[in-house]
Amino acid sequence: MKPAKFDYYCPKTLDEALSLLEESGFDGKIIAGGQSLVPIMNMRLSGPECLIDINRLHDLDFIEFDEEKVKIGTLTRQSRVEMSSLIKENCGLLSEAVPFIGHVQTRNRGTFGGSLVHADPSAEIPLSLMASGGSVLIASKEETREVDVEDFFVTYLTTDIMPTELLTEVQIPIWSGRVGYDFTEISRRHGDFALVAAACQLTLDDQNKISRVRLTLGGVESVPLLVEEANQMMMGEKLSEALLNKVADIVREAVDPESDLHASADYRTHLAAVLAKRTIQTAYNRAGR
Question: Which intervals hold domain FAD-binding PCMH-type (predicted)?
Fold first, then answer.
């Protein structure tokens, strides 16, 4: 199939892009990588009257670092994030998650911000950002606002971005101390969307007790799930089999996956508990080393 007729714009500045968004409102769509939007348009599931191509906004293609956080521009290609030594040294969880995205060709075209805005609940970048506790900058003609990742994802394929706004930057805090992390997922084939994914980042004190932890799960809710009850229970504890079993019980109660042609809800619930235990154990072992 072919998409419905639309107007095409290719702004050269952020201000021009924001002006076009303000003029078009609900009738306009941003396009960068296009790997999610174009198939949806071809199937006539979306019919924007105009596309605003931001690929010439080179100021939004960057990876920067300061003592407290790593900043990634929305237009930065996923493959650049994957290969960045700065990301590997300061955001190991993200570096581990990105290679699970599709295939090399997918990551060469896909943008970092595009994955976040698309907001697929099983996607790797939203899940790893949730586990890291980051935030995003969203710009409009009137202002630029910062939104914590917990407030950014609203529901399935829906974020806090308004029709006249554009995500410009992602900020990921650099965790200090004895930090451990892990990302894992189960899919039918390499490159497929994850049936269930899990990410965990934690720190240990001098007595090997968990002093900070963020366990997150993907593919089990309409948004990436931060398992807050499990995180609170693990605080101040040394890892043990009994503790992991308690986390698994909490996860089984917390998740609410759907059944589809790829996997049943019961199977996804089972995977969520298994992967939660696995990621916590690996993160804990890494922090201990």
Answer: 1-177
The pLDDT of residue 68 is above 80: yes
Length of the chain: 289
Closest-CA residue to 226 (of 96, 126, 98): 126
Span 42-62, pLDDT tens digits = 998 888 999 999 999 999 999
The two tokens of residue 58 are 């080179």
What are the angstrom distances between the C-alpha of 282 and each of 31, 181, 241, 244, 279?
37, 7, 13, 12, 5
Digit-coded pLDDT (tens) for 161-196: 999 999 999 999 999 999 999 999 999 998 899 999
What CATH number has the domain spanning 7-53? 3.30.43.10
Is 153 in contact with 110 (CB distance < 8 Å)?
no
Domain ranges of the chain: 7-53, 58-173, 178-288
Give the integer Cα–Cα distance in Å for 234 and 237.
5
Query: Do residues 172 and 72 touch, judged by C-beta distance below 8 A?
Result: yes
CATH no., domain 178-288:
3.30.390.50
* Residue pair 73/61 in contact by the 8 Å Cβ criterion: yes
Residue 114's CB is within 10 A of a number of other CB atoms, namely 25
Taking the C-alpha atoms of residue 231 and residue 86, their distance in angstroms, rounded to an integer, is 28
Res 1 pLDDT > 80: no
Q: Please write the tens of the pLDDT for every residue from 227-237.
A: 999 999 999 99
